[in-house]
Amino acid sequence: FKGGDTCEYLLSSGRFLGEKVWQPHSCMMHKYKNSEAKNCLIDKHIVFIGDSRIRQLFYSFIKLINPQVKEGNKHGNIPFEDKSASIKVDFLWYPEVNGSMRQRIKSWTEGSVAKPHIIVVGAATWSIKIHNGSNEALTQYKINITSIAPLLEKLAKSSDVYWVLQDPVYEDMLSDSRKMITNEKIDAYNEAAVRILNSSSRNSKAKVKVFSVSKLIAQETIMKSADGLHLPESSRDTNAMILMNVYCNKIMKPIDGSCCQPQPPLTLIQKLAFCFFTLSIIGYLIIHLIHRNNFRKNKSCTDLESGEEKKPAISTPNVSTLEMLLHSFCKLGLIMTYFYLCDRANLFMKENKFYTHSSFFIPIVYILVLGVFYTENTKETKVLNREQTDEWKGWMQLVILIYHISGASTFLPVYMHIRVLVAAYLFQTGYGHFSYFWIKGDFGVYRVCQVLFRLNFLVVVLCIVMDRPYQFYYFVPLVTVWFMIIYATLAIWPQIVQKKANGNCLWHFALLLKLICLLTCIYFLSYSQGAFEKIFSFWPLSKCFELNGNVYEWWFRWKLDRYVVFHGMLFAFIYLALQKRQMISEGKGDPLFSNRVSNVLLFISIVSFLTYSIWASSCKNKTECNELHPSVSVVQILAFILIRNIPGYARSVYSSFFAWFGKISLELFICQYHIWLAADTKGILVLIPGYPMFNVLVSTFIFVCVAHEISQITNDLAQIVVPKDNSTLLKRLLCIAGFFSGLLLFSAMQDQSRH
To answer: What CATH class does 6-252 carry?
Structure first.
């Protein structure tokens, strides 16, 4: 509400999330690693000037560069140098704001002396202590800081200059020699510094930045101080991290560091997209006005001779198709504007996530209760019928959304269970597409194009509007590639479908041979990273699957659930074979097998389900658990399917609440990146500051409505862009190929201009 200067917010305001996580007002703070800090500060000279409190900040700062540094209490200058990155950080011992400090600062303003890139200054407690808190000392402090202020303002034109305000003290813990350092005195010194600094350059961009956030942090943590004067280590580290964010965010541009980052300039592709959507809106409005005008002219009127009403002329199909196309792009353009404003413009606030068990488990319980309330009878009672799979997708998607917004990925047992949910989506991909091709035998281009369009339309638009690579939305490339693998496995010679296999059992063995070949290829690629990367490093595949200049992320994502699609295909094959031979009972209310077999399988399924949960909850190392996950995730998935389908009464009902969300699960998964979460899922979007619960309610309502609308737009456009007529479809495919060729060309131009 005060404007868009997030640097000012970072330096002056914020609050603690829990005990140690600092949340700046309105923006997100990145946690810099040693390598990132070195890359940012390469060839830089940083100087800290002041007393023992500034010395503490100096040590916390250099530990971000080299964690092995040992602290000391030396009352003197302390040099630090990292030769590998040519970084120099110096602490200069000037405990009072006096002539000596002024002389040192003045030396940097004269002649050709190399100026430090960052200067951090602050002192006052020594003046209070030495002069026993006298008013004369405060008067002298004002005189001295008045003489230093112009020099600092002059340095601020070429360097980053920070004045650190004095932190409050914990008076009860102060030693007798420091009892005169009171919070009242500290406030008086701080007030003098703030009033005098920048007084001569209020309208200038070059200003001394006042580092006042340290006061807020100290107010919450000073009682944990060892001596009542110096901050505990965690608070000093937070101050150092804030300092690093203020300087480095505009250089390193971390995704989860929105503080101090300027709004990214529009790319050429984004500008073209803006023009396209603008023209679509104008075109739709013109056609709408023309139709409205024609409707008025052709409005039913009474024939004076016969007394009958004349019917208005019916519009031609071509016009209605064009209007529908423009109407869809018009709505999509407005929605994409909202996406851009939420996650690319510095219009709305963004905050870091903070995980607590209650923030994850309470919403889970709430949605499960809601889901149970909306229970209805299914139209059919087959295993994994349409209502049931929609329900399954729906509750999984809601759990994944809660997992993302609560930041639960930091809690390993929850992370492992969420990995099973992602695997279950891919299991359904294998099951659903295999079942369709096996039963229908439809390997036509129309079916392939319909699936690819519905999966990828939203992501392609977001890649253009939000300037993100295709692989960034990793789940869509994953299901797209697996769909093509399923299609290729079943479509290549010999094409084996259910109708053909029913005539000769040998075809079943031939299909199993195909599946074994597929499993062999998966196994080979999962243990041959080099071969995998070579396949996906060929242009133009590399443009789709590279992230940060390599395809490692894509290999990691693919490898993590490499077997589950195969498991889905195999399950579909076995289930459909059993169904064809009438070895299972799918009547309403009937158990899936005989009572004895059903009870045994149900018991085994429950034990397997709980065993997996116990194993996942006992995980200590994410890397080791991820290694086992591809092989064992199918245990809990199959256990869930059997528990859900063996009892006839469970198979006969479903939750319409979850099923509704299941129908838009893909849109929900993709849209959350930018209009529910923020900074590409690293943070949380804040539409209403100061009211976290109300903010979540409002942003969630908008987010779900947008996802539902995009689902409808995708379905409408799929009918237009992917027609059933083969000759028309071929023309559309040529147009789409031309579109992507142009996109690749403009993308190459963008990359060249960036380099």
So the answer is: alpha beta
